[in-house]
Design brief:
Elements: H1 11-16, H2 20-24, H3 32-52, H4 58-69, H5 76-99, E1 104-112, E2 121-130, E3 133-139, H6 153-166, E4 174-181, E5 186-193, H7 194-214, H8 235-245, H9 257-286, H10 308-317, H11 322-325, H12 334-341, H13 343-350, H14 375-381
Parallel strand pairs: 3-4
Antiparallel strand pairs: 1-2, 2-3, 4-5
The structure holds iron/sulfur cluster.
């Protein structure tokens, strides 16, 4: 697992806020379980691609698959998502072979980034080279945030490292970056001329990475703070958020629409920041720290049966009927059922019995990809 000062996955952060990388090192990395689950999905994907490519034979594939199934993060759905990723890459590779007979597929390629980022390294999940185009595909197993390939700094770093590796063997004029995020049904692609990427690498990435590695530059809060390990205690972020809260609004009793828009823009950042402070302060208090004006108390809790069978037996011994003390069985939730029967079988078996009711109206930034809620259309529905 990567312990580089400047990890590619946080590149968008240290490129925007160069001192953040060194500051973050003071705080523990809590991504542990998610990272391990993601690694397992990558291992399954890699194994399947190696089998498709005949790098490993059937017995070896079976043996290694069984070993991976012992992992505590294993689930059928994880394996299915990884299989779908491998099929996606393999299909792209076969398509590339149609136009370029000697198309190349590299799987889980270690990428040296030191030409741009001090001590930088990464792994390209899949790289396809064909017809002057280098495509770099990244499997994102997380489902918390939908990731876009457009100007994705992590992908741009990987692509620069891969250009360094393959650029002198193949004439690459275009770089395509593809994110495959199966748990959100998200496939995002972005292309850039190789020349343009190299210019960005030399003029922007390398000097910013040098500053970030040295811990130099100014703290710059923004959307990139969301996953910063320092966010609960970062002064720059606190000052920015508090400044938003006491915004120099127009001198009137009520906020204007424009002022409400400004607050909405900042809402996610502020909510995320406040939760981080709450989580940090609780943990610190549990470790003995005291915060003036606050104390630790026991939270509310609800009563629980110690043993449901014993409760039922005792009630029935005392004359209560089974039908009166038990609730009728309930179907599992859709998510739990999908996990039980696997995603593919679920759609085939129950697809026609699942409906998705219209969601509640939600205010989102204009850049959101969802279609705008049509209030006139919806007014007519209620007539
Ligand atoms: S919270 Fe934001 S401003 Fe503060 S160090 Fe992290 S990235 Fe920089």
């Amino acid at each position: 697992m990567s312990h580089a000062v400047l990890s590619p996955s946080s590149a968008s952060r240290w490129l925007s806020c160069t001192p953040s990388a060194r500051l973050e090192m003071q705080f523990p990395d809590k991504a542990g379980d998610f990272a391990l689950e993601g690694s397992l999905a990558h291992e399954f994907g890699e194994l399947r691609l190696k089998r498709y490519s005949n790098i490993i034979d059937e017995p070896e594939w079976n043996k290694k698959t069984s070993e991976l199934m012992e992992n505590r993060f294993y689930s059928e759905s994880l394996e299915e998502y990884a299989e779908n990723y491998a099929a996606f890459v393999w299909e792209k590779y076969q398509l590339a072979q149609k136009t370029t007979a000697d198309a190349v597929l590299r799987i889980e390629e270690k990428i040296d980034l030191t030409a741009y980022v001090p001590e930088g390294f990464g792994t390209g999940d899949a790289v396809i080279l064909a017809d002057g185009t280098m495509e770099i595909i990244d499997l994102k197993y997380g489902k918390g945030v939908q990731v876009s390939a457009v100007e994705n700094k992590q992908m741009m770093l990987y692509a620069l490292g891969a250009l360094d590796m393959f650029g002198f063997m193949y004439a690459i004029h275009t770089v395509r970056m593809t994110i495959y995020q199966p748990r959100l049904d998200n496939i995002s692609e972005w292309e850039i001329p190789a020349e343009e990427l190299l210019i960005w690498g030399a003029n922007e990435l390398a000097p910013r990475a040098k500053m970030a590695f040295a811990g130099e530059g100014s703290f710059v809060p923004g959307k990139h703070c969301q996953f910063c390990r320092a966010k609960a205690q970062c002064r720059a972020l606190a000052e920015k958020n508090l400044e938003t809260a006491k915004h120099e609004f127009d001198d009137a009793s009520l906020l204007s629409d424009t002022e409400i828009s400004k607050l909405l823009e900042q809402m996610d950042i502020i909510k995320n920041w406040m939760s981080a402070i709450e989580e940090y302060a609780l943990q610190a208090a549990l470790n003995g720290k005291t915060f003036p004006g606050f104390k630790l108390v026991e939270g509310r809790s609800i009563r629980k049966y110690v043993d449901e069978k014993q409760v039922a037996d005792r009630l029935m011994e005392n004359g209560y009927k089974e039908s009166a003390i038990y609730e009728p069985p309930k179907l599992k939730t859709i998510t739990a059922m999908e996990k039980l029967v696997t995603k593919k079988a679920f759609t085939a078996l129950l697809g026609d019995l699942i409906i998705k009711p219209q969601g509640k109206p939600t205010l989102v930034p204009e850049s959101d990809k969802r279609r705008e809620w049509n209030s006139v259309e919806n007014d007519f529905k209620n007539v």
